[in-house]
Design a protein that fits this description.
29% of the residues lie in helices and 16% in strands. It is α+β, with helices and mostly antiparallel strands. A hairpin with a 6-residue loop joins strand 1 and strand 2. The longest helix has 16 residues.
Amino acid sequence: LRSNNEKDGTSSSSSLRVAAAATTKVPIDSRSVEERRLNRIVTETGEDAWGVDAVEVWLLENDNSGRLIRQNGGYWRNPDMVTDEFLSRLEDESNPMFVPAEPLLVGVDLPGHLWAEIEGPGGGSGAGGAFDLSGRGGTIFGGASKRGGT
């Protein structure tokens, strides 16, 4: 891919450099636009929330199965948090002990229990509304609840 300069008879390899630069492998993010968008939102939310170590997004399937699905791209962990063997089992797919996020029924495991609390009996918001933690002596914001004279 050399070209000859007609004026002075010298050759140039600039075409070769351009071709080499065009074939350089650039890592491609194979996630869908929706996954990248969700991951960006979850990451920004986690980074902007003081004291948050991780964020997960679970959605209820709309097929009346009552299953919760952790969305692809819907996970973020604070990079300052030290990864131990247990976190590695949840995050590192190359770990032989890796445990992928499986669909859950409402009321099962932590995401399912939290979903059930928010939905409350008979659907809709729980007795005190979504994220009311007054039964635990506080609110989602960490302060003491104002209900019941506390």
